[in-house]
């Protein structure tokens, strides 16, 4: 019997595309901090999307798809209630243009995770793929916020904390051969899978 996962997906539209970085740094980051501090969520991630704003097809609307997973129905209900209150307040105060709960961008549906998409390996169920993907998405989101802080707020980073080198490390873990291209420090890192 499959184990249920408790998720919420909020789609958050900035006032303008140029406001997306500010939404991530000034609103998403504190929301994540609070929910982790309360221990209401066990993992989270965001994606920057243009398709499926309210399920619409077409050129799309730039927005953040923010997802949280809780360990119980009690914690996901607390998260949903608190998140709606905070996002409604941000919308009413003109900090964001709009938001809604959805499932891969489609409104009025609940996101249930993607265990079935990630755990199939031929006809044999591979149980670790979705758990590993969740961790990877969370780490990617945290790295993206750090890089964004560096770009917007000029926060100092270690020289090797850059996308080409991080991709080099990932390729190394996957035992993939690498091609080399220069990065901003005139060092050479890149992957060709």
Structure description:
With 193 residues, this protein is α+β, with helices and mostly antiparallel strands. It has two domains: 120 residues, 2-Layer Sandwich (Alpha-Beta Plaits), CATH 3.30.70; 36 residues, no CATH class. It is 41% helix and 18% strand. The protein contains five helices and seven strands. The strands form two sheets. It has a five-stranded antiparallel β-sheet. Strands 6-7 form a two-stranded antiparallel ribbon. Helix 1 crosses helix 4. The radius of gyration is 18 Å and the shape is globular. The two termini are 36 Å apart.
Under CATH, the topology of the largest domain can be stated as Alpha-Beta Plaits
Extended strand count? 7
The geometry reads as: globular
Number of helices: 5
Name of the level-1 CATH class of the largest domain: Alpha Beta
Helix content: 40-55%
User: Strand fraction band?
Assistant: 15-25%
Helices and strands, with pairings:
Blueprint: E1 6-13, H1 20-38, E2 43-49, E3 63-70, H2 73-92, E4 98-103, E5 106-107, H3 115-118, E6 120-121, E7 124-125, H4 129-153, H5 163-173
Antiparallel strand pairs: 1-3, 1-4, 2-3, 4-5, 6-7
Helix pairs in contact: 1-4
